[in-house]
Amino acid sequence: MATVMIDLKRLGDVKAPAGFAERVLARAGMADSYAVFETVLGPVYVAWNQLGVSAAMRSKSAAEFEDWFRHDVGRKLVRVDPPADLGRKIEDQLSGRRRLRFDLRGLTSFSQQVLHKTLEIPRGQVRPYGWIAREIGHPAAVRAVGTALANNPIPYFIPCHRVVRSDGVIGNYGGGGPEAKRNILTLEGVQLKRLETLARSGFRYEGVKSTKIFCFPTCYHGRHAREENFVFFHDEVEARAAGYRPCKDCRPAVA
Amino acid sequence: MEGTERVFERLVRDHQDRVYALGLALTGNRHDAEEVAQDTFLRAYKALAGYPPERIRELKQRPWLHRIAVNVVRNRVRGVRPRLVELNGSEPDRGIGPEEDVLRRAEIDELASRVACLPPRYREAVVLRHVQELSYAEVADALGQPVGTVKANVHRGLKMLRGENHGDGDD
Lengths: 255, 171
Known about the structure:
Chain A is α/β, with parallel strands linked by helices.
């Protein structure tokens, strides 16, 4: 009898495995989970919780990602084995086939508006910072838009790389510098050379003669027009004076 | 709400070892133990969120968690696993903890699986009394049974564990 009871007591001394408390807190929504995923961009650390994807970063190591997350997002973070389907969902998101949910709590409402607007830019297209500012109703806050995008906690997923300077300079990029930004845009099918040539000549909009509509040069519309049917404009006034109206899809100007 | 989260985090840190040990003793393997322990805390979390502050303050956490864990295990056996939003993936089978050497771990696992082979009513009583070392009154309270019943079940359970009437797969 005695030995059995001693043995049973030892059973009670078992310790919970490493990370147990964090896994519980993650399931209760009090900590975010993360894992590293192999993507078209290389390995990306991704954090998520019940509300959606909360952060993504091409960190050099798990420790670097954890430090950054705790400092910038400020919640607890637990490394887990990723759910079976999450890898595919992320792949779909990055290739534009799916829209994941995002958790942007903790950001200012201005930043949230900027990031939500950025999500509307289609793959393969770019918009100037000023476009975001105007679209969210703060036309003068161009610099603030730049700051909000620079601090985007979920780059690649929320495509801040699709926002460029209106003078045609691709601009800096928090997700790995200007070079990374160019690579991702090229990967998405943006013709950077053409865009930059136009910008160097001061052209910000392109119009199609047959439709009398002007667009941002990367807009989906007018992509089938023949090269000789394109006209280019320096600004909105010039386009309107030539009898063109702004595209309702890419909205280069208020209609 | 903020208060509840702090209370809950302390609850998890204070009781994680006890609840995990309880899960291991009741289920007999570490994978199920982790699941039971996680589910126990999640149920506790949901309950705490609905409790008024004075009830949270007066809560006797240890017996309360034991009662929840016993119910979690009973529901699993019935196959009515509580469904939880599973965005966080499966809990992985962690490697061997640094503080537990392989031999000791194997012994513990063997013991746990023997305990898990007891019929449920004996297993619950034995585990709460002799693994978790609750008083008979606390065990009776956690199981919702009279003290006399608990004592009898503990006695019969221990007898089976000692090898008299070794009941393999009795449940």
